[in-house]
Design brief:
Blueprint lengths: L1 H38 L8 H26 L2 H27 L1 H18 L5 H13 L47 H43 L5
Helix pairs in contact: 1-2, 1-6, 2-3, 3-6
């Protein structure tokens, strides 16, 4: 009976893990959608990345369903499938983390190209100008490398910068501006600094998720062993 009681506790912890797993899956799908909206206006070459993130989130959701059904029905095959898929997910996440670190400079380079391309489209007054204005206001920046990037963009009147570059944004403040009245730093560097500042938080979250997934594998393996041994776990 001691083993049975222990397995009941493991089964409950397994359900708690699955709940967190469902939340992670939904979170990834939301991140993928947000990334799709952001990258579609900047780095056109990377538009498949959000699709991959959404697909991974959907896959995690399905894996969680398999784990839930396997635990509820105490089905050996479903639990083994869950363990295999979860182990593969951990390996893929490790590979993705390594790839992200290796290609981090490439990502920033593509982002720089994307921002400059969108600056060229700014005078057309489409969704691009709204996106760039929001970005410059949020990160208190101007241009890609700095505010002089706007000198090559045919804005009217000539020599102006978008009003979103101004420290105090008002209508027409980008015309006949003084350097003291605008943000001079470029958005690429500003966003790069923001990413570096928050990378520790992202890394800690990733490690936490990986730890939870390893615990999930351990709980699932315990349940598989119990099912294989013929114990009634609940």
């Amino acid at each position: 009976m001691a083993v049975e009681g222990g397995m009941k506790c493991v089964k409950i912890l397994h359900y708690v893990f699955l709940l967190a797993f469902f939340a992670c899956a939904v979170g990834l799908i939301a991140v993928g959608i947000g990334a799709q909206l952001f990258l579609s206006q900047t780095i056109n070459q990377w538009v498949m990345l959000p699709v991959v993130i959404i697909a991974v989130g959907a896959f995690l959701f399905l894996v969680a369903i398999v784990g839930c059904c396997g635990a509820c029905k105490e089905n050996y095959c479903l639990m083994i499938t869950f363990v295999i898929f979860l182990s593969l997910i951990v390996l893929v996440e490790v590979a993705a983390a390594i790839a992200g670190y290796v290609f981090r400079d490439k990502v920033m380079s593509e982002f720089n190209k994307g921002v400059r391309q969108q600056m060229k489209n700014y005078p057309k007054q489409n969704q691009t100008d709204t996106f760039l204005d929001k970005m410059q206001k949020k990160y208190e920046c101007c241009g890609a490398a700095n505010y002089t990037d706007w000198e090559t963009i045919p804005l009217e009147p000539k020599g102006r910068v978008p009003d979103s570059c101004c420290v105090n944004v008002t209508q027409g403040c980008g015309i006949n501006f003084s350097v003291k009245e605008i943000h001079t730093e470029g958005c690429v560097e500003k966003i790069g600094v923001w990413l570096r500042r928050n990378i520790l938080v992202v890394a800690a979250a990733a490690l936490g998720i990986a730890f939870v997934e390893v615990l999930g594998i351990v709980f699932a393996c315990c349940l598989v062993k119990s099912i294989q041994s013929g114990y009634e776990v609940m």
